Amino acid sequence: MASATRLFASARLARPSLVTRAPAQARGYASAASGGGANWPLLLSAAGAAGIGAYAYLQYDPATKKEISAKAHELEDKAKALAHQGEDKAKALVSKGEAKVKDVQAQTDATKEGSGTIGALISDSWTPFTLAKVEDYNHNTKIYHFSFGEDGADKAAGGHVASCLLVRSPDGEDKVVDAKGKPVIRPYTPISPPDQKGSIELMIKEYPTGKITPYMASMKLGQQLLFKGPIQKYKYEPNTFDKGLAIAGGSGITPMYQLISHSLSIPEDKTKWTLMFSNVTEKDILLRKEWDTLAKQHPDRLRVKYVLDKQPWGWKGETGFITPSMISKVFPRKADEKVQAFVCGPPPQVASLAGPKDGMKQGELQGALKELGYSSEEVFKF
């Protein structure tokens, strides 16, 4: 009976301590940063309650004291671990935010190089640009002019040559999605220079079976398209090779135009270029006026050879598929010359000239260029 009296007395002595601690723990939980649902302060409270509630019993049953005490310590350790996880998550969020700021700053610095302008795009965010003008180029190709708006009048697309932009339609009823309901995203290379302020121009060939090109062809002036980028494809450095060979097919001409026109605009660059541009018919040749103008302005640095599948009467250019013998004829290389070849066009053409790409990777060098003795370091596939 005396033992029972002491037991209840101990319990009464313990109760005020528990009541006193509870409000402080509640305030600590309410003011703590969220840790993804971790309820560690309540666990601490539970651990404290378990220890206090069992105190009297443990005093009078030493046989179980060790086991229950270990359980209480285990529960307390788990609570502390959850507390640390909450701190770690908070630190991770701060670190991620700091990394984001550094990334934006790096991109801003990159777009300022040489032009002194700030880029209108961020590589991991979709930015809406407004369709300001559409020009018909030929029977299936148009030039789309997209404005950066009043706030972007002094901004440029940015990026190094050569780079591309990603495009998708805005959210809404007309959003272009694939069979799985995901947005359809396509890469395009602007024909406007990266440092052009206020707008960009895209030359787009419409494919009836395509997803994005029919959508763009149906756009009205004032509508918006979402852009992300720029995405670096190949960083060009002047005078890193003596001669450049660019082989393009169809709409694959746009990266070549960005690359070569940029090179020719640099006075101290002495690199000489040869362009082999294949198309089905003469009316399919894109940017022909621009290429002919560049060739006349830089006769010592640029040679342009058009290749047609179906040549018209009196055609004096090359015809048929681009073969190793045709490449050797148009672009003979000397043993002591440092050369670099670039390929862009429909996948079957790229595969026949340099081997297929491996997703986003270059893939193994194969095809005509390998047959001619080019190394993988001397060939780049856009």
From TrEMBL:
Q: Which residues form the FAD-binding FR-type domain?
A: 124-237
Q: State the UniProt keywords alphabetically.
A: FAD, Flavoprotein, Membrane, Mitochondrion, Mitochondrion outer membrane, NAD, Oxidoreductase, Transmembrane, Transmembrane helix
Q: Which domain of life is it from?
A: Eukaryota
- One Gene Ontology CC term in the entry: mitochondrial outer membrane
Q: What does this protein need as cofactor?
A: FAD
**Where would you find this protein in the cell?**
Mitochondrion outer membrane
Topology of this chain in the membrane: Single-pass membrane protein
Which is an annotated GO molecular function term of this record? cytochrome-b5 reductase activity, acting on NADH
Supply the name of the protein. cytochrome-b5 reductase
This chain's source organism reads: Kwoniella newhampshirensis
Q: What is the lineage of its organism?
A: Eukaryota, Fungi, Dikarya, Basidiomycota, Agaricomycotina
